[in-house]
């Protein structure tokens, strides 16, 4: 419940202006709740209208995306780019291609991205974009034609010093390649730093594919070490999802001594008590673009269950939700607590509802929120931008070391911020406070525009 009158007023304005944007409301409420102690101490925030400016995107671009399928039929999708806040650097955030994409979801993602990017310590602002286009089941040629049409409008609004998109759900290396190729044709320039997540042959960074999953585990490991004098070693881990984030979280958690026993996709989940065979998952999901149920057919002793939410009934020490927003409601949170978990760290964006987070915190679980825990992807994206600007490439080991350092620093920054404002152990509040401090100070310093 919001107690500060300024925070309350700003939230009520959001509800009145955009009554149908539920995901955005959820993200704003959670942030404002965490910021209340800082707002009480800093009257200059209200004087400068910082919260009102903070919750309103600087620019929203909406456009149609016509494209032709292989049968010659024309389709039209909607494209979006939400340029939310550029106080500390160019807008930075992924593009999501998925049927559920709408303005509310992209505003929530862009809003979260402001604080996530701030926490990395790198000079990047917050943004997000995408389309309700579904790449699943489409041929490479259909995806290429869609991406070229999408970029034919988007290119007007992005640039290496203005707005730097990357991938997200539905936008992987294939899509980024098609988008970058069209940008080059339209601009007649090879501005490599305009998109991140590129292939290694044209300006991509080593470790980028692994970054979000690895970073999630680096922050979780530091949280376990600092707050519980513990580690991944010998722990049982459940990971939802089976995209890049989940796959490389599984890889790193296993390398750190844990046993990952379950993963999922949008149809259902697999349980392998002997530990997930990641080479099989990679072949199914990254090579064949198949469904996770194929794992159970290949691995004796493993089982497949329809319905992805049931994954949280499997007991574990550490839960890493890496699928999608609001996948863990109060019911799933109760199952995780009942299963004996000691820690939850979010690999997806806002995968836990507010009710679920309250259950975790009441039960005394360590809880690392997405804007801190999954910042590894955007951190390495920013490192990719740096390499592009220098016309230089770091080795995998160099980038991985930088990533680990960034994630360790993020944990200590959010933990210290929580302590500073009398909320020790509340890393949700700590992430909001630490991220907002830098952005708000930059906004005040730059004046009202």
TrEMBL record:
<feature type="binding site">
    <location>
        <position position="212"/>
    </location>
    <ligand>
        <name>NAD(+)</name>
    </ligand>
</feature>
<dbReference type="InterPro" id="IPR006095">
    <property type="entry name" value="Glu/Leu/Phe/Val/Trp_DH"/>
</dbReference>
<dbReference type="InterPro" id="IPR050724">
    <property type="entry name" value="Glu_Leu_Phe_Val_DH"/>
</dbReference>
<feature type="binding site">
    <location>
        <position position="113"/>
    </location>
    <ligand>
        <name>substrate</name>
    </ligand>
</feature>
<dbReference type="Pfam" id="PF02812">
    <property type="entry name" value="ELFV_dehydrog_N"/>
</dbReference>
<feature type="binding site">
    <location>
        <position position="92"/>
    </location>
    <ligand>
        <name>substrate</name>
    </ligand>
</feature>
<keyword id="KW-0520">NAD</keyword>
<dbReference type="InterPro" id="IPR046346">
    <property type="entry name" value="Aminoacid_DH-like_N_sf"/>
</dbReference>
<dbReference type="GO" id="GO:0000166">
    <property type="term" value="F:nucleotide binding"/>
</dbReference>
<keyword id="KW-0547">Nucleotide-binding</keyword>
<dbReference type="InterPro" id="IPR033922">
    <property type="entry name" value="NAD_bind_Glu_DH"/>
</dbReference>
<dbReference type="InterPro" id="IPR006096">
    <property type="entry name" value="Glu/Leu/Phe/Val/Trp_DH_C"/>
</dbReference>
<dbReference type="GO" id="GO:0005829">
    <property type="term" value="C:cytosol"/>
</dbReference>
<dbReference type="InterPro" id="IPR006097">
    <property type="entry name" value="Glu/Leu/Phe/Val/Trp_DH_dimer"/>
</dbReference>
<feature type="domain" description="Glutamate/phenylalanine/leucine/valine/L-tryptophan dehydrogenase C-terminal">
    <location>
        <begin position="205"/>
        <end position="447"/>
    </location>
</feature>
<feature type="binding site">
    <location>
        <position position="167"/>
    </location>
    <ligand>
        <name>substrate</name>
    </ligand>
</feature>
<keyword id="KW-0560">Oxidoreductase</keyword>
<feature type="binding site">
    <location>
        <position position="116"/>
    </location>
    <ligand>
        <name>substrate</name>
    </ligand>
</feature>
<feature type="active site" description="Proton donor">
    <location>
        <position position="128"/>
    </location>
</feature>
<feature type="site" description="Important for catalysis">
    <location>
        <position position="168"/>
    </location>
</feature>
<dbReference type="InterPro" id="IPR014362">
    <property type="entry name" value="Glu_DH"/>
</dbReference>
<dbReference type="InterPro" id="IPR036291">
    <property type="entry name" value="NAD(P)-bd_dom_sf"/>
</dbReference>
<dbReference type="InterPro" id="IPR033524">
    <property type="entry name" value="Glu/Leu/Phe/Val_DH_AS"/>
</dbReference>
<protein>
    <recommendedName>
        <fullName>Glutamate dehydrogenase</fullName>
    </recommendedName>
</protein>
<dbReference type="GO" id="GO:0004354">
    <property type="term" value="F:glutamate dehydrogenase (NADP+) activity"/>
</dbReference>
<comment type="similarity">
    <text>Belongs to the Glu/Leu/Phe/Val dehydrogenases family.</text>
</comment>
<feature type="binding site">
    <location>
        <position position="381"/>
    </location>
    <ligand>
        <name>substrate</name>
    </ligand>
</feature>
<dbReference type="Pfam" id="PF00208">
    <property type="entry name" value="ELFV_dehydrog"/>
</dbReference>
<dbReference type="GO" id="GO:0006537">
    <property type="term" value="P:glutamate biosynthetic process"/>
</dbReference>
<feature type="binding site">
    <location>
        <position position="244"/>
    </location>
    <ligand>
        <name>NAD(+)</name>
    </ligand>
</feature>
<comment type="subunit">
    <text>Homohexamer.</text>
</comment>
């Amino acid at each position: 419940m919001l107690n500060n009158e300024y925070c309350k007023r700003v939230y009520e304005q959001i509800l009145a202006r955009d009554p149908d944007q539920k995901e955005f409301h959820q993200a704003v409420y959670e942030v404002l709740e965490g910021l209340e102690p800082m707002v009480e101490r800093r009257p200059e925030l209200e004087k400068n209208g910082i919260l009102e400016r903070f919750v309103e995107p600087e620019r929203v671009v909406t456009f149609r995306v016509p494209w032709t399928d292989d049968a010659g039929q024309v389709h039209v999708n909607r494209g979006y780019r939400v340029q939310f806040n550029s106080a500390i650097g160019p807008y930075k955030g992924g593009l999501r291609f998925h049927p559920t994409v709408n303005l509310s979801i992209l505003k929530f993602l862009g809003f979260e991205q402001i604080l996530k990017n701030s926490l990395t310590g790198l000079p990047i602002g917050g943004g997000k974009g995408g389309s309700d286009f579904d790449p699943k089941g489409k041929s490479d040629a259909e995806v290429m034609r869609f991406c070229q049409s999408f970029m034919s409008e988007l290119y007007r609004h992005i640039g290496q010093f203005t707005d730097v998109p990357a991938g997200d759900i539905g936008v992987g290396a294939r899509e980024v390649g098609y988008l970058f190729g069209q940008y080059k044709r339209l601009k007649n320039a090879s501005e490599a730093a305009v998109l991140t997540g590129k292939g290694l042959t044209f300006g991509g960074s080593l470790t980028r594919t692994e970054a979000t999953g690895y970073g999630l585990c680096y922050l979780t490991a530091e949280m376990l070490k600092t707050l519980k004098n513990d580690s991944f070693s010998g722990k049982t881990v459940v990971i939802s999802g089976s995209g890049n984030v989940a796959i490389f979280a599984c890889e790193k958690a296993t390398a750190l001594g844990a046993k990952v026993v379950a993963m999922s996709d949008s149809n259902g989940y697999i349980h392998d008590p002997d530990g997930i065979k990641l080479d099989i998952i990679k072949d199914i999901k990254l090579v064949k673009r198949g469904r996770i149920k194929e794992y159970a057919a290949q691995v004796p002793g493993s089982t497949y269950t329809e319905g992805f939410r049931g994954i949280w009934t499997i007991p574990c020490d550490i839960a890493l939700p890496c699928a999608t927003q609001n996948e863990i409601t109060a019911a799933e949170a109760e199952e995780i607590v009942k299963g004996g978990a000691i820690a939850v760290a979010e690999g997806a964006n806002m995968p836990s509802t507010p009710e679920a987070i309250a259950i975790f915190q009441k039960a005394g679980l360590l809880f690392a929120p997405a804007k801190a825990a999954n910042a590894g992807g955007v951190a390495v994206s920013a490192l990719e931008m740096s390499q592009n600007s220098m016309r230089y490439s770091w080795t995998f080991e160099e980038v991985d070391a930088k990533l680990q350092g960034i994630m360790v620093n993020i944990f200590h920054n959010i933990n210290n911020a929580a302590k500073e404002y009398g909320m020790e152990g509340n890393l949700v509040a700590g992430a909001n406070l630490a991220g907002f401090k830098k952005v708000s100070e930059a906004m005040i310093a730059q004046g009202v525009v």
